[in-house]
Hints:
Elements: E1 8-14, E2 17-24, H1 30-38, H2 42-50, E3 70-76, E4 97-103, H3 106-116, E5 125-130, H4 136-148, E6 151-155, H5 157-165, E7 171-172, H6 183-188, E8 194-197, H7 202-207, H8 209-217, E9 222-223, H9 226-240
Parallel strand pairs: 5-6, 5-8, 6-7, 8-9
Antiparallel strand pairs: 1-2, 3-4
Amino acid sequence: MNVLGLMNIQFAVKDGDVYLIEVNPRASRTVPFVAKATGVPIAKIAARIMAGEMLADFPLPDISIPSGHVAVKEAVFPFARFPGVDTILGPEMKSTGEVMGLDKDFGHAFAKSQIGSGTMVPVAGKVFISVRDRDKPSMIEMSRDLINKGFGIVATSGTARVLEAAGVEVETINKVLEGRPHIVDAMQNGDIQLVFNTTEGSSSIADSYSLRRSALTLKIPYYTTVAGARASIASIEAVQSGGLEVAPLQSYFSIEF
């Protein structure tokens, strides 16, 4: 495209086809994250290329070689500042910033990213699980893992039946629409320390609004995907191990420019 310097490119992939949405000849806010994650001063190199130097003149690292550390970027949302706003995400840009977790493995890096964004990783208590049908099988092993880590499992009736059938010890609790005592009551009473909730369909999303809002106001970690739930368990293991150490950014890299 005859652009020297940085470009911000957005792609979409569907059914194996790659679509180019837009290209902006500028730096994005991802640039400082990538620079810190790789140890490569991307903005500095881009400026020198714009001034006439060649990209081949810079000792760029081989990204196929494991770096020995993991960097996790977590979005920061302003939901707590606006009463009544739903925390569920869609295609709109809602984040107002991001934080970075950097450590020797994913669990520690993810834990740091959560703490940096204002989410405290629990090390004990009860986990509430209510997920759509296709996600229920994934919760079986995760529930067992959480129990082994000292947590209790609380679930709505549909999820609880699947867990019980697999031999997982679980406490059944009402949805908000099923009457009291229900899950929001338990959250407000301080009985729930972590929430896994996946929804499907407009009715389910609307029904679980009070659950999401309560988790936000009560500062209870809340994950809406199976991947997010797995990541949270990895962070719990990291925090329980007592190994969230602080190291200077430069200690992760040996590249010089």
